[in-house]
Amino acid sequence: MMSISKVNEKPLVKICGLQDVEVLKSMKHLTVDFIGFVFARSKRQVIAAQAADLVKVLSEWQVRPLPRSVGVFVNPSVEEIEEILRQVSLDVIQLHGDESPALCRELRAKFGVDVFKVFSLNNDPNQAAEDIDLTLAPYEGVIDAVLIDTFDPVYGGGSGRTFSWERSIPYQIWARKMQIPLFIAGGLDPDNVHELVNGYAPDGVDISSGVETNGIKDMIKMTAFVERVKKA
User: Fold this and answer.
1) What is the 3-class SS of 73-107, one letter each residue?
2) Residue 18 falls within a domain, yes or no?
3) What is the domain-level CATH number for residue 198?
4) What sign results for the dihedral spanned by CA atoms 119, 94, 14, 171?
5) Would residue 115 be called left, alpha or beta, if left means φ above 0 and alpha means ψ between -120 and 50 degrees?
6) Residue 41: inside a domain, yes or no?
7) Is residue 7 part of a domain?
8) Which residues partner with 45 through β-bridges?
9) Which of 135, 167, 224, 230: CA 20 to 30 A from 196?
């Protein structure tokens, strides 16, 4: 298992929702740290065989270190993860539902993967920091990164909408105490990511729809996004 707990000088970039091999090949010159493949119900969902072909492309990346492969799941069973991992080499399991600390611990121990736990922010902008700490505390020592996203009633996250970035601060404080990265997702795009990075200094950013045009990953938008994050 590779440690990613060290806070990076430049924010980590994760581009999620890849489905097309040729699109992924066109990205090989980008300084991307994580590439995400969605196994949960979504318009960007992939099956295991499709993801296996996509993951092979990561070994051809022209920028080092190579991007790490991330499988995105919502409330999976251990058996579901195991079946996917028989067919696809994943470095990270990203859990986007109500997964317990016990499941996170089991996945790390059984499969030797890193586990990213997503917390979707509810509609209460005044959620107390104490309540956030109570939510996060059981995950101490069993996850490798925290990712916060805007709540979506259908999928839980992946709404493509931003939240007030001030709300990330209690999560960031906890993640720093745990010495693990904090990723921010939700409504990011090449035009607003510079403000986020410079104003709130997350350890990583996660994007999908914000670098698409008509539902397809857009090379110009992806290049602009990565450059603006890494130069911020």
Assistant:
1) ECCCCHHHHHHHHHHCCCCEEEECCCCCHHHHHHH
2) yes
3) 3.20.20.70
4) positive
5) beta
6) yes
7) no
8) 38
9) 135
Q: How many domains does the chain have?
A: 1
- Residue from 132, 120, 199, 128 nearest 163 by CA: 120
Q: What is the mean pLDDT of the chain?
A: 92
Q: How many CB atoms lie within 10 A of CB 11?
A: 23
The region that residue 157 occupies, defined by phi over 0 for left and psi between -120 and 50 for alpha, beta otherwise, is beta
pTM, two decimals, is 0.92
Residue type for position 227: E
Residue 151 pLDDT > 50, yes or no?
yes
Domain that holds residue 123: 12-207
Q: Compute CA distances 216 → 70, 72, 177, whole Å.
A: 19, 19, 38
| 3-class secondary-structure state, position 59 | coil
* Contact by Cβ (8 Å): 142, 108: yes
Give the pLDDT confidence of 172-189 residue by residue, as tens digits. 999 999 999 999 999 999
